[in-house]
Amino acid sequence: MSAIAKVAAAMLAASFALSGEAFAKPLAIVNAQIYPSPNAPQIRDGVVLMQDGKIVKVGTRSEVSVPKAARVIDAHGAVLTAGFWNSHVHIMPLDLMGAKTAKAATLEGSIQAMLTRWGFTTVFDLASSTENTLALRERIASGEILGPMILTCGDPFFPEGGTPIYVRQYLADHGWANEEVSTPEAAADRAVRQLDRGTDAVKIFAGAIVGGDIGVLPMRLDIAKAVVAQAHKRGKPAFAHPSNYAGINVAIDSGVDILAHTTATEDGSHDPYGWTPELIKRMRAHNMALTPTMTLFEWEAKKIHQKPEVLAQTIKLITSEVKDFSAAGGEILFGTDVGYTDAYDTTEEYRLMSGGLDWRQILASLTTSPASRFGYAAHKGRIAPGMDADLVLLDGDPAKDPTAFARVRDTIRGGLVIWGKDR
């Protein structure tokens, strides 16, 4: 078991320490259409039996006997999948600040609106206050607050002079320390401090959008390498915000594992030919994954009142990048940049993704791909005996309409309904 997986197991056990009833009483979901994994056959009239935070049995109604003592949720033909991952969020909304002392009800309400309402049982925070996010994670792990498992990069790493233009005021308003790094030694030292505190990855701004005549400022390669090296020494991943080709090159050459976005920029300009086969080949040679965050580009376009024809060209470009990267064997991880954006509803992300991916590929981006990429494949991402009882019940079939992934009826983590109709 990886170091990250060991931490996750401990967190899961602790998260339901205050919920003994959830462990003592089995939970059964019956009459469901089950998609056990992206490539497994559908189970009709299916049953999933859970106990002590784990899946015990999976099969048809005739194959699985439900104990009389079990709590039973009748799915009425709804679709059941493994719990969703959002591999690009930010613990930055105002209601999630001051997590160490804020009221539990306030924190849980914000988490529901932003995450669990949309089926997320695990999230990766790609830049926030290390101290605040670790405090929130601890309160969820204690069982005080119902929420997803949180993995975090903690504080981000900006190039010198490269604090992104769109977060400068936010950082100033909340008294954040300067996140810029000017030497490899200082960057490595901060990476060590954050990772030693319990963060799960690092995030560099390989290309930081600063505006003005510069536009996008790339991070110095030696600094990027210093940060990434510290994560890799601990067996942890490195993410990068690329912004453009120069940023992608820094990410590739420094050994980054996951690109946090495609590369159409926020003002509507873009690399003229999208991602070339040669660039995708280089990315694939480094086993890089991609979190598209396609809705982000629409969200930013609305903020600046971008012309519809410019936005349409941007969407066409990023759709082709996602499609071409996936077709070349590149791994796609679902992510929305929510927490930076307030676009909590995931419907549009699924609609945009379906322009370049089929529903099974989208399901993989939500389940098996992140579970495998981040070291959890042994107990997350699939519906099978022995796996964590992290599940999503959908009022719709994504095989017929990919936006049905957003029509969440229940979100279940560790055998406990943490959001939904049947809570």
**Rg, nearest Å:** 21 Å
The poorly predicted ranges are 1-7, 13-22, 266-271
Q: Give the rounded overall mean pLDDT.
A: 92
Q: What fraction strand?
A: 15-25%
Please report the number of helical segments.
Answer: 14
Largest sheet: 8 strands, mixed
Q: Shape from CA axes?
A: globular
Helix content estimate: 25-40%
Secondary structure: number of strands: 20
Structural class, by secondary structure, is alpha/beta
Separation of the first and last Cα atoms: 32 Å
Can you walk through the features of this model?
The chain is α/β, with parallel strands linked by helices and 423 residues long. It is built from 14 helices and 20 strands. It has helices at 3-15, 20-24, 104-114, 130-141, 168-173, 184-197, 221-233, 245-254, 277-285, 294-303, 308-327, 347-353, 359-366, 368-373, and strands spanning 27-34, 43-51, 54-60, 71-74, 79-82, 84-89, 120-125, 149-152, 158-159, 180-181, 202-205, 207-211, 215-218, 238-241, 258-259, 289-290, 331-332, 391-394, 408-413, 416-420. The strands form 5 sheets. Strands 1, 2, 3, 4, 5, 18, 19 and 20 form an 8-stranded mixed sheet that branches. A 5-stranded parallel sheet has the order 11-14-15-16-17. The chain has a 3-stranded parallel sheet with strand order 6-7-8. A hairpin with a 3-residue loop joins strand 12 (207-211) and strand 13. Helix 1 (3-15) crosses helix 4, helix 6 packs parallel to helix 7 (221-233) and helix 10 (294-303) runs antiparallel to helix 11. The longest helix is centred in the last third of the chain and has 20 residues, at 308-327. It starts with a helix and ends with a strand.
